[in-house]
Amino acid sequence: MNGIDRPALGLLILRVVAGLSLSLAHGMGKLPVSDKFIEGVGGMGFPVPVVFAWAAALSESVGGILLALGWFTRPAAAMIVATMTTAVVLRHAGDPFGNREPAILFGAIALMFLLVGAGKYSVDGRRGDG
User: Fold this and answer.
1) C-alpha–C-alpha distance, residues 74 and 43, integer Å
2) N or C: which terminus of the chain carries fewer CB neighbours within 10 A?
3) Alpha carbon distance, N-terminus to C-terminus of the chain
4) How many CB atoms lie within 10 A of CB 93?
5) Alpha-carbon gap, residue 48 to 41, rounded angstroms
6) What is the pLDDT of residues 32-74, one digit of tens each?
7) Chain-centre distance for alpha carbon 93
């Protein structure tokens, strides 16, 4: 693989797969935010649950797309980490591990991109912030 930066290629693959999976499998289904989802967020004790429900849904859907593109990667990853932490600690606190696992994995992947950035094969990388 001459000329290919293999670590950057690995970041690209992980970013695209995780970002699209989060957005398409978890985020887009929450849009538009339903009354049931808002009630669930309110049941976790959040003030102004409609705002927090929209923040969670947008974090997963739009944040996942931004992560896949590697565009505003660190802010998107920070929002995903916050949302996934909430899912693990509050929403799925008493659930079996298998129910918490997707949030743990998406949160860990987002935390990694928050720490290291998107890599050179990304929109951020093209802007010099990869």
Assistant:
1) 29
2) N
3) 21
4) 10
5) 9
6) 999 999 999 999 999 999 999 999 999 999 999 999 999 999 9
7) 19
**Which has the closest alpha carbon to 19: 96, 113, 104?**
113
Determine whether 47 is exposed, middle or buried from the number of CB atoms within 10 Å of its CB (0-12, 13-18, 19+): exposed
Are residues 77 and 67 in contact, defined by beta-carbon separation less than 8 angstroms?
Answer: yes
Specify whether the CB–CB gap between 7 and 119 falls below 8 A. Answer: yes
The residues near 67 (Cβ < 8 Å, ≥ 6 apart) are 15, 18, 19, 22, 73, 76, 77, 80, 110, 113
Separation CA 122–CA 23 (nearest Å)? 18
Distance CA 10, CA 109 (A): 13
Tokens of 83: 């949302």
pTM above 0.85, yes or no: yes
Rounded Cα distance, 118 and 128, in Å: 11
